Amino acid sequence: METTNVTEGADTFTANVFLVEGARNVLVDAGAMAGVEDRVAERVDDLDAVVLTHQHGDHVAELDAVLDAFDADLLAYDDHPRRTDAIDDGDTVDIGDESFEVVHTPGHADDHVSLVSETTIFSGDVVVHDDGAFDDGSFGRTDMAGQSREELIESIQRILDRLPDSVERMYAGHGGEFHGNVRDVIERALERAERREPKYPDE
Q1: What CATH number did the domain enclosing 77 receive?
Q2: Which of 81, 110, 138 is the last residue of a domain?
Q3: I need a labelling partner for 86 at 20 to 30 A (CA). Which of 13, 94, 102, 103 fits?
Q4: Metallo-beta-lactamase domain: which residues (predicted)?
């Protein structure tokens, strides 16, 4: 299973968008970088599905362009005009060569999900490795309308409860990818979130 961040080096603000190649070519999120569909087409001829971690603009602004370029299914927790399949907590989604459990992880966004397999987690914006606020374990912002630090803390704990010890790769919506002891990174993020201090000085 090969995973590529197809928005790496983008000049505009965008979420990371991961193309996972394998038995089922899947894009995790669509991002906000114009031309992302061309980056995908450079690597694969066919795209089986797009799976959304959540529907904030930096994750979905270019979704129509991707879906117009490929005859791909759209899997999302929340309703969307182009959604072909609803996903819910506990569902299983095939991505690349692995099966991923859908974990509903609200707090940063009500419709947020994380995707967990035996080796890999796509954590969206709930927990990341590095994002400018913290390195080696950070958490999604919760200072905007409709967000909740308490729900986010519960979501990170839910990930830990359902995370196999064999997971060694973390691909988050922002910051760099991480290979190593993913549980330790997530536990540090949880500890920082539980302090309930502002993530950013102006928060």
Answers
A1: 3.60.15.10
A2: 81
A3: 13
A4: 14-174
d(CA 72, CA 50): 7
CB 167 within 8 A of CB 117: yes
pLDDT at 63: 98
Sorted by sequence, the CB contacts under 8 Å of residue 1 that are 6+ apart come out as: 20, 21, 22, 95, 96, 97, 98, 120
Using CA atoms, how far apart are residues 88 and 151, in angstroms rounded to an integer? 17
List pLDDT tens digits, range 133-192: 999 999 999 999 999 999 999 999 999 999 999 999 999 999 999 999 999 999 999 999
Asked whether residue 87 is assigned to any structural domain, the reply reads no
Rounded to the nearest 10°, the torsion over CA 13, 55, 53, 112 is 120
Range(s) of the domain holding residue 48: 1-81
Verify that 64 and 125 share a domain, yes or no.
no
For residue 200, what pLDDT is reported?
81
Question: Percentage of the chain surpassing pLDDT 70?
Answer: 99
The answer to whether the predicted template modeling score (pTM) of the entire model surpasses 0.90 is yes
| 112 in the same domain as 25 | no
